[in-house]
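--- STAGE predict ---
source: upstream dedup step, 1 unique chain passed
mode: sequence only
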Amino acid sequence: MNSTPEAPGGEAIGKDAGSPFELVTIRLPVIATFIALIAGLGAGVLLAGAALPDWFLETTALVGTLWLRALQMTIIPLVASLLVLGIAQMSRAARAGAAARYFIALVLGVSILGGLFTASVLPPLLSAVPIPDGASAFLAEVPVGEQQVPDILDFVASLVSPNVIAAAAETSMLPLTVFFALFALAISRLPDEQGERLLGFFHAIANAMLVVIGWVLWAAPAGVLALAFGVGLKSGGGAFAALAHYILVVAGMGVFILVLAYVIAAVLGGIGPLRFAKALIPAQAVAVSTQSSLASLPAMLDSAGRLGLREATSEFVLPLAVAIFRATSVAMNLAVALYVAQLAGIEVAWPLMLAGIAVAVIISVGSVSLPGSISFVVSIGPIALAMGVPIEPLALLVAVEMLPDIMRTLANVTMNVAVVSAVDRSRQ
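--- STAGE serialize ---
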């Protein structure tokens, strides 16, 4: 595979099309965090009703609260940097030729369709198959109540803030997303030297924040253990049922993207479902075992070759897809936010639902190259904040992300190859 594949009819796409975070290597204690979650919940269930000393309960709550706040403090600066870098990356890719523009149109189309599917299907699904009793303990001290539905004119007015610093202080994600999206587009209009200088600045901020959030997530086993212990005390065994319910519901939204990949391959790529399925087996096996689209790239290239797709197309589109496209991101991230909303008794109005989809689409471009645990918090936090949904439960749900992440990677890899087939056919 060429290290700098050339866009058909366009300029070369090199290192800039890949992850902007090559300088930072982060290894997260995923298994330890998952074990801490189970241990904390189990200990809480076993000790529920026991006369525990107040100092012990207060210390445990303090540890969990400090870790949760440390996680929250990283969201705004990292999201701002990711937005600028991701949108600039997509803008650069769009200038690489007609094939790249068609690819980006497919990226946006799949992302928006996935968001609309989740927004339409998940609320009635949760009404038909409600969240198990006891799950409300995941909200910790978050106030639960009805959300005030904004007037449409007030909602539109909220998209632009006269003071972006104040918006950041208030974690108002909608005006922040609009501002930084416009800022990224403005950077693409600057002279090359000025644009590269600004992108280098945001690149450095993103890398620094990744180091910080890496430190925070290294402390995840202790933080999750403390938070899970409190949840176990309040909810009993219902917490385990709630987690299983959550995993199945969120993974179900990923199944839609997986099925959609076969539809795109058939309709836009002209490849029958059975032939497509047989060719994808090696790439899907790597995806499930590694939970990494990047690690699956050689297998995806092999699957594209088995389907008879042109090498020039696959060697251009697949690295670009790994860099800026995570097909399940909008559908599954929105599902997490809506699940928490249901947990908190918040009915999200359609204007806010559409705002959540828009934020999810934009954020997905920037966070696509991040490790799963980091992208979970960074991607879903802004969506939840944009819809007025509490983000505190994310601190515990991140501990089980390794399970839905199997579906994420499986569907992402399958969709990447489906998109290659569509782009290749468009060039005939």
